[in-house]
Amino acid sequence: MSKLLKRLVPVLIIGLAIGTFVYMKNSKPQQPPVQVSEKVWSVDALTVQLQSISAVQTLYGEVESNALVQAAAPISAVVEKVAVLPGDEIKKGQLLVALSNQDVSILLQQAQADVADARAQLQLQKLTIEANHQRLEHEQKVLGLKQEALQRAKSLLKKNLASQSAVDTAKEALVRQEYVVVGADLAVKQSDAQLSQLQARLQKALTALEQAKLNQQRAVVKAPFAGRISSVGVSVGDRVNTGAVMVSFYSLDSLELKAKLPANSLPQAQQALDNGQPLQAYIDSDNAQRVSMPMKRLAGQATTSGVDAYFAVPNELHQKRPGELMEIYLQGRVQSQVAAVPYSAVYGNNRIYVIEDQRLQSMQVSLQGEVMHNGKLQALVSAPQLQNGMKVLVTHLPNAINGLKVAEVE
């Protein structure tokens, strides 16, 4: 009996444990089933408005001056006065730089002395020419007398009234006189040639004198027009060489902006210039006013990246300096049936998402340029199925796909 109990006790314990486990399992609380709901993305949307808009193109350019004057030293001299500094506004006729008057006066006096010397030599040569002409006339008269003497000697010889030696003496005198006439004629011709040389020397001296007077004027640099000083390359007391640039300045009206125009925009820009209706660019100034900058001309040479276009800088932007960089917006041709949307609404340059029944639907579009709106660039898009009143997704969702459920934020 005891052996049987010993065998039943473990069985009873195991059975009790199993029963307890089954009871506890069946009596535990039941979890309600999990309800899975679809996520809704809160987004901003834009109502489509199809319209005709002039596309704009962002260009980056550099301010230049087409009339930069570099005043150089006309002679080697000492700088006596410097009246301006870089960046100064100047008025027409204002003194800029002056060289030493002593250096200029010495050269002017030398030129005047050369002119006086050339004139004196010319006057002396004229007297010499007059004397040579008188001598030639005299020697020619003597030659005529010698010829007559020879004829008389020959006539007397025929009449046996003179000897042959008398005839020979007359011939010898005639030959000598002919030689004297040749010398006198040569002296006249030489004096005429020397007169031409002295006249040329006088003209050269007069030219040098005019140059000296011109250098005297140029030694005092005055502004030929109102403008701004670009740079000053000398100081008081400097000795400058001939041709050294002393001061550079430019007119405020000469400022223009040089910007690279893409090659695909060249035909339109050239046609507009030929028609007398140049394309217009503009810039938003500091006071929130739009300043227009018409295109003046196109460069004569192009590169593979485009051609340089030059735009007028109006009076409102005269504070600009050469070398300053500017961002401008070039207005192109008018695009019809296009919608302006933020760039955040464009996916991959050719796709936008339209919201229909709180679901996203992708739409293929074509980019037609860009436009400035409230100080920000927006893309101009067009598509055959794009219509007024459609809602376009503006919030850029990295996970945007067709059918994604969204809720527009009011």
Automatic annotation (TrEMBL):
Q: Which organism is it from?
A: Thiomicrorhabdus marina
UniProt keyword list: Coiled coil
**Which residues fall in a coiled-coil region?**
101-139, 188-215
Upper classification of the organism: Bacteria, Pseudomonadati, Pseudomonadota, Gammaproteobacteria, Thiotrichales
Stated name of the protein: HlyD family efflux transporter periplasmic adaptor subunit
